[in-house]
Write a structure and sequence with these properties.
By secondary structure, this protein is of the alpha/beta class. Helix content is 29%, strand content 26%. Bound molecules: adenosine-5'-diphosphate and magnesium ion (MG).
Length: 153
């Protein structure tokens, strides 16, 4: 998929949020400034999070309360020890949705089943957003999302 502005990226994420359930894991990769945190802001809006979502780079993990689901937002960019001993499983099994920026830094700590989202610059304000589902749950989720995009829901 392609978006032409931060607002479009957030709107896409907001739609995705409507398909998520507790225990879901989304990873976001792409260069600095690609739009990973912007995407997360859209997800948060869709989950009914009232607080402003900011980049968690200095705290690694931030937790937000949504209407039905919590949002666990992690940024592994500055993690050096690979994320072990952080008790991450607790979040992945928790009653919220986990979003991980820079998953490659903690690959060994992450469940294999996830919706991997790759964001790439294709212009000043244009981005390519590619959804890569791993596992049946996420494959079906992507099909539903694409179907909704086609029918304009
Ligand atoms: P990351 O978390 O990947 O480092 P951010 O979301 O913090 O990236 O920053 C992305 C920046 O790019 C923001 O300043 C945003 O306004 C800008 N931007 C421009 N076009 C887009 C787009 N289509 N989608 C997302 N962000 C965009
Ligand atoms: Mg970021």
């Amino acid at each position: 998929m392609k978006t032409g502005s931060p607002e479009e990226t957030m709107a896409l994420a907001e739609k995705l949020a409507g398909h998520l359930k507790a225990g879901d894991l989304i990873t976001l990769d792409g260069d600095l400034g690609a739009g990973k945190t912007s995407f997360t802001k859209g997800l948060a809006k869709g989950l009914g999070v009232k607080k402003n979502v900011s980049s968690p780079t200095f705290t690694i993990m931030k937790e937000y309360k949504g209407t039905d689901l919590a949002l666990y937002h992690m940024d592994a960019y500055r993690l050096e020890e690979g994320g072990a001993e952080m008790g991450l499983e607790e979040y992945f099994e928790g009653d919220g949705v986990s979003v991980v920026e820079w998953p490659e830094m903690i690959e060994n700590e992450l469940p294999a089943y996830r919706l991997a989202i790759h964001i790439r610059h294709i212009g000043d304000t244009a981005r390519e957003i590619r959804l890569e589902p791993a596992g049946d749950r996420y494959r079906i989720l992507c099909e539903e999302l694409m179907e909704n995009e086609r029918t304009g829901n």
